[in-house]
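Customer escalation, tier 2.

The customer says the design service returned an amino acid string that "doesn't look like it belongs to this structure." They asked us to rerun it and document both sides in this ticket. The original structure tokens are below, unchanged.
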């Protein structure tokens, strides 16, 4: 699913916005997420999961082709931990009805 697909689903479900406004809204959400993560803050989306930046220290590695040792530099990595609600939906267990959010499966094509 792409950002354009997300914008199309929002446009079809909510209405009241033009397609351009919907695309701008989706872009704003992702820009806000990038800025928040760039500041080193967590993003917690209830019922979906947590996005967290972690610092990895430098370590010794090996070149897979030559086997020569190399130094892997320190870096920040983004990790995502799914909520229990998302995990249960993905495993077809389904959350309680109060937490269930309908999905427009007919509008979204699976890869």
């Amino acid at each position: 699913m792409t950002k354009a697909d997300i914008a199309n689903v929002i446009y079809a479900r909510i209405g009241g916005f033009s397609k351009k406004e919907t695309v701008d809204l989706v872009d704003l959400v992702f820009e806000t997420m990038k800025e928040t993560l760039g500041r080193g803050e967590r993003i917690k989306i209830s019922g979906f999961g947590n996005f967290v930046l972690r610092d990895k220290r430098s370590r010794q590695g090996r070149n897979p082709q030559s086997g020569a040792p190399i130094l892997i530099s320190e870096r920040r990595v983004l990790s995502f931990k799914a909520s229990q609600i998302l995990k249960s939906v993905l495993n077809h267990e389904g959350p309680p009805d109060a937490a269930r959010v309908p999905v427009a499966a007919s509008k979204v094509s699976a890869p």
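Tier 2 assessment: The sequence is consistent with the input. The domain at 42-101 is CATH 4.10.520.10 (HU Protein; Chain A). The helical segments are 3-14, 19-38, 84-90. Sent an explanation to the customer and offered a walkthrough call.
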